[in-house]
Amino acid sequence: MKILFIEDDICTQVAVSEYLKFLYKMDIVKARHGQEGLDKLATGEHFDCIILDERMPVMSGEEFLQAYEGSVPIVYSTAFSDRDPVRPVAAIIPKPYEARKLGEAVMRICGKNEE
User: Fold this and answer.
1) What gap in Å lies between CA 22 and CA 98, rounded to an integer?
2) What's the pTM value of the predicted model, to 2 decimals?
């Protein structure tokens, strides 16, 4: 399972990526902001799911959602639970991350059972 993880905080990126790789055997491709995520998607590389942070420099999660026209399911992560994203997403995961809940959400969205 290949995941595009769009997150600007490098420590979070590394910790969560390693956890998802180890526990769920996910292949994680990282992007530091929404524009970098769109650039990776534009290469035609296949992704099963996108994990998208809300607040990032260059292009935020909200701006990414407005620009993205694909159909890959999105898990939206936010520390601000008082508002909904600008378009429907497959799941909303609060920050700070509980990596296990994030992994379970991605597995559920991609129709995979835990191994």
Assistant:
1) 15
2) 0.89
Q: What is the CATH number of the domain that holds 69?
A: 3.40.50.2300
For the chain, list residues with pLDDT below 70: 81-87, 113-115
**Checking DSSP bridges between strand 27-31 and strand 2-6, what pairing results, if any?**
parallel
Say which residues have a Cβ less than 8 Å from residue 24's Cβ, sequence separation at least 6. 1, 103, 106, 107, 114, 115
30 within some domain: yes
Q: Is residue 68 part of a domain?
A: yes
From CA 13, how far away is CA 38, in angstroms rounded?
A: 17
